[in-house]
Amino acid sequence: MTTVGDDVLPFSPTSVQNGVHSIRTFLQNRQRKLVFQFNADTGLVTTTVVDAKRQQIVRQIPVEQALKLIF
């Protein structure tokens, strides 16, 4: 566990970096990339999976339409 300010996080920075590296390697082999965006208004992070060859969105988590319904 790692402490950041008053928050206790269940993962260490090293384990998160290792996980991100594994995901990037997995996606590169499938010609996909991840794009992370932080929305300051909602406080949510949107993760977008993009087809690296065609530059098209494959999936977005959470889906933009769901965000519009929530906020």
Summarize this structure briefly.
With 71 residues, this protein is an alpha+beta fold. It has helices at 13-28, 64-70; strands spanning 2-4, 7-9, 32-39, 44-51, 56-61.
Spell out the key features of this protein:
two-stranded antiparallel sheet, 71 residues, 2 helices, 5 strands, flat, alpha+beta, 32% helix
Strands of the largest sheet, in order across it?
Answer: 3-4-5
Shape: flat
Low-confidence stretches: none
Please tell me how large the radius of gyration is. Answer: 15 Å
Mean pLDDT: 78
Order of helices and strands: EEHEEEH
Helix-residue proportion: 25-40%
Class inferred from helices and paired strands: alpha+beta
What is the first-to-last residue Cα distance? 32 Å
Strand content: 35-45%
Total count of strands: 5
Summarize the biggest pleated sheet: 3 strands, antiparallel
Number of helices: 2
